[in-house]
Amino acid sequence: MIELRDIRKIYQLGEEEVHALDGVSLTIQDREFVAIIGASGSGKSTLMNIIGCLDTADEGSYKIDGQEVSDLSEKQQSILRNRKIGFIFQQFNLLPKLTAYENVELPLIYQGVPGAERKTRVLEALERVSLANRVHHRPNQLSGGQQQRVAVARALVTRPSLILADEPTGNLDSHSTDDIMRLLKELHAQGNTLVLITHDNEIAAAAPRRVRLLDGKIVADSGNVLVYDAKTEQDNRRTIVPGDSRISAPDGGKGGGRA
Amino acid sequence: MKLSQAGKMAFSAVLSNKLRSFLTMLGIIIGVMAVTLLISLVQGATNTVTESLDELGGDQLVVSITDRSKRLTLGEVEALAGEGGIAYVSPTLSGSGTAKAAGKSTDVTISGITEFYDAVQGLDLESGRVITQLDNEQRLAVCVVGHSVARDLFGNTDILDETIRLSGRDYRIVGVLNEAQETMFGSANSAVFLPFTNAQRLLSNVSVGSFYVATEEGTTTQEAEDVLDRALMEKYGDDDSYSIVNLTDVMDAVNDVMAALELLLGAIAGISLLVGGIGIMNIMLVSVTERTREIGIRKAIGALKSDIVVQFMIESVIISLIGGLIGMLLSQGVLTTLNTLYPDYHFGITAGVAAMALGFSIMVGLVFGIYPANKAAKLKPINALRYE
Question: What is the per-residue burial (b if ≥16 Cβ within 10 Å, else e) of A244-254?
Fold first, then answer.
């Protein structure tokens, strides 16, 4: 579970102070699929960096699974990133000199997982993203969509609490975009917690819950919905309006709703 | 992360840019080559000098008479034997000349010796006998010839009872020496040994110019030197008239000089290792900047600071260690070539020098890798990921 309370982040641009995040509070339950939508400059990247423990907030509290992140040392944050967060970036961010297999293996190496287990898990993850036949290809031998799928496998392989996707389709053609979005929805349906950051309403529509960010503030939240469900999806699409409209999760959701 | 994994990563990073890795290594290659080559050359030369001195007799004293106004006779010299601690005294009278036989001639060194020469300096006979007391008493015209002399004049060494002619006198060959090892001070190969009394006449010199002294067992060369000093002082009354050289002292002095030379040259060559190390640091810093994004990705997916430090440190150590190995192989190659060109010398890299050179290589890699590795580890993942 992710809990952000009154998060503020201020950048100093010369004389001017820019409030990238201006009091953001957000709770994301396990197994949720949330899209954070915002135009460039809305603070969504800053928010994503803070959620991903790549950056720290100036004020406010951020807890992952009950653990206050600002209390953690740099080393503990690295370990937390390694175990609890899986990243999917717009630029894929694969290491160009490593094969698909080696890229997916990397977080497990840093985690200290023994070799035999690593192999099983890496192959499993690559199988999961339908790249079992591209295991020993390097990124430059793969298409954009395939590269992003390797990145998804890398995010998955550690079985993280949270998969964080930052504009995952930003560099992909429409065909690959569909591919990745289908994959993300499947991952959600299988019980993963996903946070998708995008500027694109259409992409965001894949997520049952959508949070809109404007000038460092949350201006709309469609409410937490735990499981992907075509019917709720339709409902949500109609109800997403500016303003802090929170809709309770329908009963019978797998993870239990927030009070 | 396990060290083996870090090593694998570092190795593939080194291999992925072979030319650059090699150019970086070049500094270390040259540095290690310079250090091992210079030290091995000095060590080789030291060994050769020491061997030559040993060949002359390491536990012997050499007395030279500089004051020719007072004659030191053969009898006086021989009387010294039997004084405290002195076992044998072997006077020699040296000169040079041309030996002729069977229509051929060759330049030889002529040494007049007594029967004690064999006991003190040693004669390595292939056949025949050495010069005896009787030869000297009777002034017999006999000689013992070196290996080269025999070969040059007769073409073989089976020449006992043949004669050679020196300054118009014939000498009967009673002994032939085995081939001797060439030393810096020459060898017995081109020598002709005559009875001392005969050489006095041949070289027109009756007084003893120098003599070797062998000490009795249990007597140090220093003690023997004191005894000789007292006896000669009694005769000459002036210690400028003679000199006593203790070969052990000479050897010690040579070793001291060579050790100092080794240290000096090693230190100078070490500077090139230092320069090589700075080269590594420079390239590692460039590499850190170039790989900022890679570092960001690694940190984002959970690499610890220490993982990054270890990865970059191993990279610089691999470069310096491989450079060190190549440098050592090259200098071994040069030494082997020198050995074939100059067979008198035996150059080689000793285990100690090899260990030292590799130890220094590793140290250079560690010392000059620390800063870049730390710089890489300190990058904030957020900034590193944004880096284009």
Answer: eeebebeeebe
